[in-house]
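Dear support,

I submitted the protein below through the web form. The confirmation email said the job was done, but the results page showed an empty box. After a refresh the structure appeared. I'm attaching both so you can tell me whether what I see now is the final result or a partial one.
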Amino acid sequence: MLAETICSAVSAAGLGIAALTAYRKRFVAAARITAYALVPIGLVLTGVVEWLTGIVFNPTVWIGFGLLALSWALFATTRAVERRRLGTSGEPAKKKVKGGRAPEAVAPAASAPSLGAAATGAQREPAPGRKPAAAAPADDFSDIEAILKKHGI
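What the results page shows now:
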Protein backbone atom coordinates (compact mmCIF):
# COMPACT_ATOMS: atom_id res chain seq x y z
CA MET A 1 0.00 0.00 0.00
CA LEU A 2 2.86 2.37 0.81
CA ALA A 3 4.64 1.66 -2.48
CA GLU A 4 1.49 2.41 -4.45
CA THR A 5 1.05 5.73 -2.64
CA ILE A 6 4.65 6.71 -3.30
CA CYS A 7 4.36 5.85 -7.00
CA SER A 8 1.14 7.87 -7.27
CA ALA A 9 2.79 10.89 -5.60
CA VAL A 10 5.81 10.66 -7.91
CA SER A 11 3.50 10.53 -10.94
CA ALA A 12 1.49 13.52 -9.72
CA ALA A 13 4.67 15.54 -9.12
CA GLY A 14 6.00 14.61 -12.56
CA LEU A 15 2.75 15.69 -14.22
CA GLY A 16 2.94 19.01 -12.35
CA ILE A 17 6.48 19.58 -13.59
CA ALA A 18 5.36 18.67 -17.12
CA ALA A 19 2.55 21.25 -16.89
CA LEU A 20 5.02 23.96 -15.84
CA THR A 21 7.35 22.99 -18.67
CA ALA A 22 4.51 23.16 -21.19
CA TYR A 23 3.54 26.59 -19.79
CA ARG A 24 7.07 27.74 -20.67
CA LYS A 25 6.44 26.68 -24.30
CA ARG A 26 8.84 23.71 -24.15
CA PHE A 27 6.37 21.18 -25.47
CA VAL A 28 8.81 18.42 -26.48
CA ALA A 29 10.42 18.43 -23.04
CA ALA A 30 6.97 18.51 -21.42
CA ALA A 31 5.87 15.48 -23.42
CA ARG A 32 9.00 13.59 -22.38
CA ILE A 33 8.48 14.47 -18.70
CA THR A 34 4.85 13.37 -18.98
CA ALA A 35 5.97 10.03 -20.40
CA TYR A 36 8.35 9.49 -17.48
CA ALA A 37 5.69 10.62 -14.97
CA LEU A 38 3.15 8.08 -16.23
CA VAL A 39 5.49 5.08 -15.77
CA PRO A 40 5.12 4.71 -11.96
CA ILE A 41 1.33 4.92 -11.98
CA GLY A 42 1.24 2.49 -14.90
CA LEU A 43 3.33 0.02 -12.91
CA VAL A 44 0.93 0.35 -9.96
CA LEU A 45 -2.14 -0.19 -12.13
CA THR A 46 -0.70 -3.28 -13.84
CA GLY A 47 0.23 -4.89 -10.51
CA VAL A 48 3.98 -4.92 -11.08
CA VAL A 49 4.65 -2.93 -7.92
CA GLU A 50 2.62 -5.35 -5.80
CA TRP A 51 4.44 -8.30 -7.38
CA LEU A 52 7.85 -6.71 -6.72
CA THR A 53 7.05 -5.91 -3.09
CA GLY A 54 5.87 -9.50 -2.64
CA ILE A 55 9.24 -10.71 -3.94
CA VAL A 56 11.37 -8.31 -1.92
CA PHE A 57 9.76 -9.07 1.44
CA ASN A 58 9.49 -12.85 1.01
CA PRO A 59 12.39 -14.80 2.61
CA THR A 60 11.91 -17.88 0.43
CA VAL A 61 12.54 -15.75 -2.63
CA TRP A 62 15.86 -14.59 -1.15
CA ILE A 63 16.82 -18.19 -0.42
CA GLY A 64 16.08 -18.98 -4.06
CA PHE A 65 18.28 -16.09 -5.22
CA GLY A 66 21.04 -17.35 -2.92
CA LEU A 67 20.81 -20.85 -4.41
CA LEU A 68 20.94 -19.40 -7.93
CA ALA A 69 24.06 -17.41 -6.99
CA LEU A 70 25.67 -20.54 -5.53
CA SER A 71 24.87 -22.47 -8.70
CA TRP A 72 26.41 -19.73 -10.85
CA ALA A 73 29.54 -19.68 -8.66
CA LEU A 74 29.92 -23.45 -9.01
CA PHE A 75 29.57 -23.24 -12.80
CA ALA A 76 32.16 -20.44 -12.99
CA THR A 77 34.60 -22.26 -10.71
CA THR A 78 34.40 -25.53 -12.59
CA ARG A 79 34.81 -23.69 -15.87
CA ALA A 80 37.95 -21.95 -14.59
CA VAL A 81 39.41 -25.23 -13.33
CA GLU A 82 38.62 -26.89 -16.65
CA ARG A 83 40.34 -24.11 -18.59
CA ARG A 84 43.41 -24.29 -16.37
CA ARG A 85 43.71 -28.02 -16.99
CA LEU A 86 43.25 -27.70 -20.74
CA GLY A 87 45.59 -24.76 -21.15
CA THR A 88 44.89 -21.72 -23.24
CA SER A 89 44.35 -23.58 -26.52
CA GLY A 90 41.15 -25.25 -25.36
CA GLU A 91 42.42 -28.71 -26.28
CA PRO A 92 43.69 -31.38 -23.89
CA ALA A 93 47.44 -31.48 -23.33
CA LYS A 94 49.35 -33.91 -25.56
CA LYS A 95 50.35 -37.16 -23.88
CA LYS A 96 54.02 -37.97 -23.79
CA VAL A 97 55.31 -41.07 -25.55
CA LYS A 98 57.96 -43.45 -24.24
CA GLY A 99 61.27 -41.77 -23.68
CA GLY A 100 59.70 -38.64 -22.20
CA ARG A 101 59.41 -36.74 -25.48
CA ALA A 102 56.18 -35.42 -26.94
CA PRO A 103 55.45 -36.31 -30.57
CA GLU A 104 56.41 -33.52 -32.93
CA ALA A 105 53.73 -31.91 -35.02
CA VAL A 106 54.05 -31.87 -38.77
CA ALA A 107 52.62 -28.93 -40.69
CA PRO A 108 50.30 -29.82 -43.55
CA ALA A 109 51.71 -29.31 -47.02
CA ALA A 110 50.39 -26.37 -48.97
CA SER A 111 51.05 -25.22 -52.48
CA ALA A 112 53.04 -22.04 -53.07
CA PRO A 113 50.14 -20.07 -54.64
CA SER A 114 47.94 -20.64 -51.61
CA LEU A 115 50.62 -19.33 -49.27
CA GLY A 116 51.50 -16.29 -51.35
CA ALA A 117 54.92 -14.65 -51.56
CA ALA A 118 55.90 -15.73 -48.06
CA ALA A 119 56.09 -19.37 -49.19
CA THR A 120 58.42 -18.63 -52.10
CA GLY A 121 61.19 -17.52 -49.76
CA ALA A 122 61.47 -14.12 -51.41
CA GLN A 123 61.19 -12.25 -48.14
CA ARG A 124 63.08 -14.68 -45.92
CA GLU A 125 66.80 -14.80 -45.52
CA PRO A 126 68.39 -18.05 -46.64
CA ALA A 127 69.74 -20.54 -44.14
CA PRO A 128 73.52 -20.41 -43.59
CA GLY A 129 75.39 -22.22 -46.35
CA ARG A 130 72.55 -21.97 -48.89
CA LYS A 131 72.08 -19.74 -51.88
CA PRO A 132 69.32 -17.13 -51.71
CA ALA A 133 66.14 -18.08 -53.54
CA ALA A 134 65.23 -16.18 -56.68
CA ALA A 135 62.98 -13.19 -56.09
CA ALA A 136 59.33 -13.66 -57.03
CA PRO A 137 58.28 -11.74 -60.14
CA ALA A 138 56.53 -8.45 -59.42
CA ASP A 139 52.76 -8.55 -59.78
CA ASP A 140 51.37 -6.98 -62.92
CA PHE A 141 49.47 -3.84 -61.93
CA SER A 142 48.88 -2.57 -65.47
CA ASP A 143 45.11 -3.12 -65.28
CA ILE A 144 44.92 -1.17 -62.02
CA GLU A 145 47.01 1.63 -63.49
CA ALA A 146 44.66 1.81 -66.46
CA ILE A 147 41.63 2.16 -64.20
CA LEU A 148 43.34 4.87 -62.17
CA LYS A 149 44.33 6.79 -65.32
CA LYS A 150 40.77 6.50 -66.63
CA HIS A 151 39.50 8.24 -63.52
CA GLY A 152 42.26 10.84 -63.58
CA ILE A 153 44.07 9.65 -60.48
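Response: this is the final, complete result; the empty box was a page-load delay. The chain is about 60% helix and 0% strand.
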